[in-house]
UniProtKB/TrEMBL annotation:
It comes from Roseateles asaccharophilus. InterPro entries: Diguanylate_Cyclase, DUF484, GAF-like_dom_sf, GGDEF_dom, Nucleotide_cyclase, Rev_trsase/Diguanyl_cyclase. It is an enzyme of class 2 (transferase). This is diguanylate cyclase. Residues 219-358 form the GGDEF domain. GO terms for molecular function: diguanylate cyclase activity. PANTHER family: DIGUANYLATE CYCLASE DGCM-RELATED, REGULATORY COMPONENTS OF SENSORY TRANSDUCTION SYSTEM. The lineage of its organism: Bacteria, Pseudomonadati, Pseudomonadota, Betaproteobacteria, Burkholderiales.
Amino acid sequence: MDDAAPLEAENQHLRQQLQALLQEARANEEKMRRFERLEHRLIGAASLQELLQVLLQDYRQVFALDEVSLALVDGEQELARLLGAAQPAGLRLLPDAAALQRLHGETDLPQLGAFKPARHGELFAHVMASVALLPIRRHGRLIASLHFGSLDALRYTPDAGTQLLQRLAGILSVCLESALNQERLKLAGLTDALTGVHNRRYFEHRCLVEIAQARRHRHPLACLFLDIDGFKAINDRHGHAAGDVVLRTVGQSILGQLRAGDTIARWGGEEFVALLPQAGQQQAREIAERIRGRIAAQAVAASEQPIAVTISIGLSLLGHDIAGREPGQLAQDLLAAADQALYRAKREGRNRVVADSA
């Protein structure tokens, strides 16, 4: 009996160890299943916005992380234009890869360890206890950095395995490139090739969306119809190449004076249109005057002599009596009112803003 007691105790200890190993194996298996499900969602993301949601929201929730952030190199501000006002929390766009290069150096491996305020403070909105930093490279270039933060100091330690994180970094690099290419293809069909602003097709779609939003949330919606004054004379005097430069300059000048969330498009010829959500008449007029003043103040270097350019603008507001009316008809009425106001601006001397009187 006395000899059996130590053996029984040892067996009990072994059984406990085995049970612990089995529980760890089940936990790892479940973790792998969750990882694979999210991996499939990353690969299947239908848009850049969906991809970012999976990364910044779903990963945090599924793996009980306290914070997830992503830094993306956006040297040409392409991502900023694609995302617009829909840029999600946790995403940071960088003008170049210098900051990421300082963070990761030449390594392709994830960095795990304690949170260091001086080194990691800009990566997270709050102080963490431990972090995992994943360099994202594509074709040898550092294009992004994904960051996981935890309030548990033991969650990410330097001696922890990084195989899953390395796998995630590799998948994410491919998914990011694919999502960007998809967005570029979409944008190519909705962008005016000459001026770089949206085209009429995009505007017509966006107008219906903004009208639906304005009706649902009961906020104002303003429309601007903008026309370059004397554009035919500019073409006749300076040539069509110079006229193209004027169109590009004006389009970009209008874009530069709009707010995040506003929409600009080339309507056709020398005409542009803009939508200003949540802008009443006073604010819309201020924006329109800012556009008009900016264009009038700059001469366009498009020929041997700088070309003076002015613009006339018609302004209209979505009416209050819109319940039960079709969005398409409301869009036509909104544009027609802005067009009539533009006609008045031309008739009254050009280089001015005129609001619809309705």
